[in-house]
Design goal:
The chain has 12 helices and 23 strands. It is an alpha+beta fold. The protein folds into 4 domains: 90 residues, 3-Layer(aba) Sandwich (Rossmann fold), CATH 3.40.50; 66 residues, ATP-grasp fold, A domain (Dna Ligase, domain 1); 128 residues, 2-Layer Sandwich (D-amino Acid Aminotransferase, Chain A, domain 1); 85 residues, Phosphoribosylglycinamide synthetase, C-terminal domain (Glycinamide Ribonucleotide Synthetase, Chain A, domain 4), CATH 3.90.600.10. Strand 20 and strand 21 form a beta hairpin. It is globular and about 60 Å long. It binds adenosine monophosphate and glycine.
């Protein structure tokens, strides 16, 4: 079987590596991939907004199955487009992807189906939004409606910060804004809950806890994710039942009432407040770096799972997981998430001899003249699975120290909530 993966991050290299080990896969193409995927797959330099060219390449090379990693092409409707051209593809369609593409769409769904989430208001201009903050209890959360790569969320500690957020969003920092979302701030602990859906059934696809802030102690700016561990320390049977019954099932029902069938991964971002789950956001894909953290624990063949979803046969297969703990630390380019240098060579990679249960997934890397260069903010993902989180972290740290890349930095406290 020939498989194509759309995307170029750590998530896509993780998917690529896991599929590479399946004896059902003959060849993998990555659109466009990174230096890591280029070792095990064919990287295809292609504009991800040009669906026609992607289709042409898929048909010409007789690729049997496409997996879409990131949200942008999903929200842009790549699944609808490829399906129309009779190409088998894993991921939600354009309408279903509104769950991530429009925070207001999701909030309205929550309202209609009684899904627990932070109280909110939707405002259509600067004046009404500002007026609302006059009587608010701070902190409050101001959010752009549309995709903003995790940057369109402002936690505001006072009116001044809220005004800046409102102005930036309405002035088009994240694209044209017709409206804005203002939410109550939830105090609790975050957790990511993943499910995989075939349009009829869904199954758990792991839990994780991400570290979104750039600095140790969960301080500083939000990033795409500096590291994660899986499973989340918060998950238990009772909580899982609440997540499924109070959040996931009503969401799927809400979509179905709109004539929308959900197929693909669903990432439910939660705030757990006194053992009660509140929805913070949905993402219509796996998380990054949660995917890199979760996949090494998967014992079943990933391709069987993904194909069974497309065929609406998820109930016919088992998804088996290892009981081991998994930890991931992201090595970033110095300066990230603000301005950072690109095209810095990463030497010493060949010094790292990964042992069993250790993984290294590339993100913003490029191979040129047999050398590896950084080209993104998040550069490499170091993962280990082990009997306990502490041991996993020791293994990762050894590899990071061996690499000793002067262009990079990483958070040394990843997993601090589960490691003494
Ligand atoms: P989002 O992109 O909606 O997931 O928001 C990014 C991050 O902002 C989340 O991971 C939370 O850490 C934080 N956040 C968003 N909404 C809230 C909220 N209502 N209360 C507290 N924190 C929030
Ligand atoms: N790690 C957060 C995300 O993938 O959105």
């Amino acid at each position: 079987m020939k498989v194509g993966i759309i995307g170029s991050g750590g998530r896509e290299h993780a998917i690529c590596s896991i599929l590479f080990n399946s004896n059902k896969i003959d060849k993998i193409y990555c659109f466009p991939g990174n230096a890591g995927t280029s070792e095990i797959a064919e990287n295809v330099e292609i504009d991800l907004e040009n669906f026609q060219n992607i289709k042409k390449f898929i048909l010409k090379n007789k690729i049997d199955f496409i997996i879409v990693g990131p949200e942008k092409p999903l929200v842009d409707g790549i699944v609808d487009f490829l399906e129309k051209n009779e190409i088998k593809v894993f991921g939600p369609n354009k309408l279903a992807s509104q769950l991530e593409g429009s925070k207001i769409f999701t909030k309205k769904l929550c309202e209609k189906y009684n899904i627990p989430t932070a109280k909110f208001g939707i405002f259509i201009n600067i004046e009404s939004a500002k007026k609302f903050t006059e009587n608010s209890n701070f902190p409050i959360v101001v959010k752009a409606d549309n995709l903003a790569s995790g940057k369109g969320v402002y936690i505001c500690k006072d009116k001044k910060e809220a005004f800046i957020a409102i102005e930036e969003i309405f002035n088009g920092k994240f694209g044209k804004a017709n409206n804005i979302l203002i939410e109550e701030f939830l105090h609790g602990e975050e957790m990511s809950y993943f499910t995989i859906h075939d349009g009829k059934n869904f199954k758990n696809f792991g839990t994780a806890q991400d570290h979104k802030r750039v600095l140790e102690g969960d301080l500083g700016k939000n990033t795409g994710g500096m590291g994660a561990y899986s499973p989340s320390r918060l998950i238990n049977e009772k909580l899982e039942k609440k997540i499924i019954n109070n959040i996931i099932k009503p969401t799927i029902k809400g979509l179905s009432d709109l004539g929308i069938n959900y197929k693909g991964f669903l990432y439910t971002g939660l705030m757990i407040v006194n053992n009660e789950p509140y929805l913070i956001e949905f993402n219509v894909r796996m998380g990054d770096p949660e995917c890199q953290t979760i996949l090494p624990r998967l014992k079943s063949d990933l391709i069987d799972i993904l194909v069974s979803c497309c065929d609406e046969k998820l109930n016919k297969i088992n998804i088996d997981w290892s009981d081991q703990k998994s930890l991931c630390i992201v090595l970033c380019a110095k300066g990230y998430p603000d301005v950072f240098q690109k095209n810095v060579e990463i030497k010493n990679l060949e010094q790292i001899n990964l042992k069993k249960n250790e993984f290294l997934f590339h993100a913003g890397t490029l191979k040129r003249d047999k050398k590896i260069f950084s080209i993104g903010g998040r550069v490499l993902n170091f993962i280990a699975i082990s009997e306990n989180f502490y041991d996993a972290k020791v293994k990762i740290t050894k590899n990071l120290e061996k690499l000793n890349w002067p262009g990079g930095f990483y958070r040394k406290d990843i997993g601090y909530k589960v490691i003494d």
